[in-house]
Backbone:
């Protein structure tokens, strides 16, 4: 698969919550805020005290003031752009909360001297269509039943990059390593009875399930909480495919034999 990828043509995806940690994204967002409010600044419609603000939210505060007091002078599409940025930053605040910090502490990576983890994250890209086609052909070879692709991305980890602890919003996740790093970069499951680190080796992959059972209940399996370990040396490239199972038996379904044959996720895996 790796031979079919032109890494310089990969398209970044911005649909993931972990993008809230990107310092580059924060800088670009401030530039966006200022481009939206610049006409009002040129017309002296922004109070001078907003320019003297030295905190990281100065551009945001100017935008909020502009929308609150001069909404008729801002295009609707720009208001929506700004609102989306605010939503992203609110997500960052949730990670800073007590609950968010408790989740971060589950990481198996070593902490810094102040007890925190570094937050340089792997970069996600849209899955090249050639690879997605190969993966779609692979799925029936390892899983029985009907499955749909919920999401598919390619993730590149440079030295120092990792991933935050999380549970995937799908039934099953297929991870395939296209390029292994020289040191670090394991996929970690920190709350198993015995926490595990699975090394990512080129050409190898693994499958895990994030919902509890094949039954109609799609509640999350908390034991599937995982994160990408910090890459200490080299570069790691993986493809991640999130899958949803379409052959669930609803509560009122009378096909008891089908339900009996597929009692657990182990019953849909062909390669066991």
Residues:
């Amino acid at each position: 698969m790796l031979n079919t990828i032109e890494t310089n043509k990969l398209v970044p995806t911005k649909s993931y919550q972990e993008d809230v940690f990107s310092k580059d994204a924060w800088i670009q967002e401030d530039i966006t805020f200022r481009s939206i409010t610049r006409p009002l600044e040129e017309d002296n419609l922004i109070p001078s005290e907003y320019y003297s603000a030295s905190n990281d939210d100065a551009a945001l505060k100017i935008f909020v003031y502009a929308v609150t007091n001069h909404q008729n002078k801002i295009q609707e599409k720009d208001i929506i752009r700004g609102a989306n940025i605010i939503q992203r930053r609110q997500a960052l605040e949730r990670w800073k909360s007590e609950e968010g910090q408790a989740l971060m502490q589950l990481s198996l990576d070593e902490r810094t001297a102040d007890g925190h983890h570094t937050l340089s994250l792997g970069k996600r890209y849209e899955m090249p269509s050639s690879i997605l086609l190969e993966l779609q052909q692979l799925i029936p070879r390892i899983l029985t039943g009907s499955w749909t692709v919920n999401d598919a991305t390619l993730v590149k980890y440079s030295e120092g990059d990792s991933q935050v602890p999380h549970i995937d919003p799908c039934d099953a996740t297929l991870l395939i390593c296209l390029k292994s790093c020289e040191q670090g970069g394991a996929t970690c499951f920190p709350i198993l009875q015995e926490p595990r680190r699975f090394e990512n080796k080129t050409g190898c992959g693994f499958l895990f399930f994030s919902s509890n059972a094949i039954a109609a209940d799609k509640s999350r399996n908390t034991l599937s909480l995982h994160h990408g370990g910090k890459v200490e040396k080299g570069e790691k490239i993986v493809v991640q495919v999130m899958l949803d199972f379409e052959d669930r038996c609803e509560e009122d379904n009378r096909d008891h034999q089908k339900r009996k044959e597929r009692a657990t996720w182990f019953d849909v895996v062909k390669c066991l």
In short: The CA atoms of residues 55 and 61 lie 10 Å apart. The mean pLDDT is 82. The first helix runs from residue 23 to 42. The helical segments are 23-42, 58-70, 76-96, 98-104, 129-142, 256-261.
